[in-house]
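Per reviewer request, we include the raw input and output of the structure prediction for the construct analysed in the revised manuscript.
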Amino acid sequence: MSDYPLISDHGLIGDLQTSALVATDGTIDWFCSPRFDSPSIFGSLLDSERGGHFSTRPRADAFETKQLYFPDTAILLTRFLTEEGVGEVIDFMPVASDAPSSRHRLVRQLRCVRGSIVFDLEVAPRFDYGRQKHAVTLSEHGATCTAGETTLTLSLIRDPGTERLGQAEVTDGGDLRFSLSLSEGQMRGVVLETDGATSPQAVPVADAHRMFEETAQFWRNWIGQSTYTGRWREKVERSAITLKLMTYAPTGGLVAAPTAGLPEQIGGERNWDYRFTWVRDASFSVNTLIRMGFYEEAAAFGRWLRDRGAAQLGSPTGPLNIMYRIDGDTHMTEEVLEAWEGYRGSYPVRIGNGAAGQLQLDIYGEAMEALWNAYRSGVDIGQPGWVAIGRLLDWLGENWDQPEEGIWETRGGRKDFTYGRLMCWVAFDRAIRLATAYGRPAPLSRWMEHRDAIYNQIMEKGWNPERGAFVQQYGEPVLDASLLKMTQVGFISPHDPMWTSTLAAIEKELVSDSLVYRYDPSASPDGLRGSEGTFSLCTFLYVDALARADRLDDARLIFEKMLTYANHLGLYSEEIGPTGEQIGNFPQAFTHLALIDAAITLNERLDAVGARGRRTH
């Protein structure tokens, strides 16, 4: 299993329709096209032998690598330091249009900045998760790989008439290998293109520079819209760029992560496909991006949510599915890639997601919270949207009081989860606010009855007197970190004794040296074997809850500790393992959304304390 890099040893590049992971050793080991949720072309991250890759590394007995982003961009720079020289690989994807496209470009520039260096490159595509054979045609300007109706063209970056600095060969297995010998100041490279030109074309160096400058300018212009000027700005903005990279521009949908099958426990079975848009994640993203001033993205997500509600193409469990494909489609049958061993032997590798048909009542509250915030930022809901909201609330009024699978998508049967009821309360509360502010007709008295009934039920059944805490599910003493959102959504005051007692119980049972478990699977079986790490989302929710409770010293220390678990680029996966390694799909939107929220909340509280202190002097 030594052929696998650490999950955290990667950077992410993308063009707002798909993305690729680049390891610190220069290997592209995950790339799907034409969309995030399409079959992989490079997938050695999940099977080092059968997955396929595009590797680039120096021909040297020993070398060091450094990896960073060009400031304020999604352009990745991987540096190789050898005794003979220093080489750099610059990876990026020119931003695609807002229309769905099968044509995507991945630019890989290679240059020598000191001495001399020889780069060995290997392009080993494995189309359709390695299930489809391909043919390779080598030409003067590159190569073409064809598998069925899919074409991958590799065009060399070089000016006409310049000396050839490399040589290429095709292996018996259809892999392309070539080398480039560069001296100080020289630059070459390749442009990979899916379903574009069927024959390679020489790419002049000036064109490669132009693509670089245009891509860099796009990202700098985008992040320049941020209104956040507080503490930890660099971390916050890197998280925002990461979220943008996980956005499917044609619909505004946000994938939970650009990867599938990365394990929550090495060697375990908790390996899921996250390349879809969850209503929950999309809703949280609206709220977070509004707080940073990204109103256009928030509006796009708001329209995505509005359209899902208007379509009413939900599962048999309700008018909304819990997740959708990035184009809004609801079909995502879960299957196992039997031939793939999984990351470091973590089998099975699943594609599709079998949780899509679950009943998760919390999504209605999260959607309504997002629509309320989107309305306040200027998104027009319109009459069709308002009618759809009314239908959603009509359904929820008849169905909120029933067992469900819950936010964590457990596969151990439906239960009365307190978090699900909490977010149902949010749904009615925000609908009431929206109707009042918008001046739209609504059955306010009925919505108020539902809201108040849910509130009273949570206070009666969600509160466990023996534990002195709100608990995960009715009738059981199990704690759950999702309830850290209770003060964030305004259900209870952060200084209420019932809440401070709950927070103390969570700290005692679910917090481990500042890191937070979402729940205890042994105390609340979730239908799956194995264990998991601490949940990074929950740790940032904990910081937010501490800040709202005015425990600012605790909140700041825990936030600073959590920042040390980021990888070298500031990216986070879903979970942190026992020895501090990142595990689970990478990078994860939920984690980066929560980081931004926690940073903004904590920064606001610290500023408020500072302002009060200045007024007293």
